[in-house]
Design a protein that fits this description.
Elements: H1 8-22, E1 25-27, H2 31-35, H3 41-50, E2 53-55, E3 59-63, E4 67-71, E5 91-95, H4 99-105, E6 116-119, E7 128-129, E8 133-134, E9 148-151, E10 158-161
Parallel strand pairs: 1-2, 4-5, 5-6, 6-10
Antiparallel strand pairs: 3-4, 7-8, 9-10
Amino acid sequence: ICSDALSIDALAPVLERLSAAVGFCVSVPGNWERGKTWLPVAFWEQFMARHRWHYLCNKSLELEDWGWVYGCDDISKGFPAVPEVFPAGLEKIFLVHRPDTVIALDRDKKLDPFTLALCGHTHGGQIRLPLIGAVLVPSFYGRRLDCGLFGKGSSDTRMLISSGVNHASFPLRINCRREIILIEFE
């Protein structure tokens, strides 16, 4: 959500507008939040709660008898964990900042109970060349996980990686659309 401590105050009205527009908002820790160790998880939980957001760091939330959302910590500076117990009869959504976390935690099919894993972090590569695609993607898996919908193969779990609306270290996008994805469940 923000990449500079000076942006935190400017973030409040954005969070308020988003929560007013959709009514239910969830966020998970990213590399920036977890990299600032002087701002503990409790700070972000309280900050987001003040603006009607749920901050899930290795925590879950049930959504009115329809679904169950699990928000995972970031792998680069945090302590990601997979839940031991899953509720029966509900759609299960896994939220995490970085797609590398999904792959790292999916040892022994631990994420198979989830229908969908939602990620960001890659910014779609930020600079994309025609016929080549993303030039550089901040992932151990490189350009293979720049953005899009990915199937696991051995289960029905899918991973959706959004290119997001912001940028990484430098404020430039070339041939890389900003996106907000609307997912409708039936």
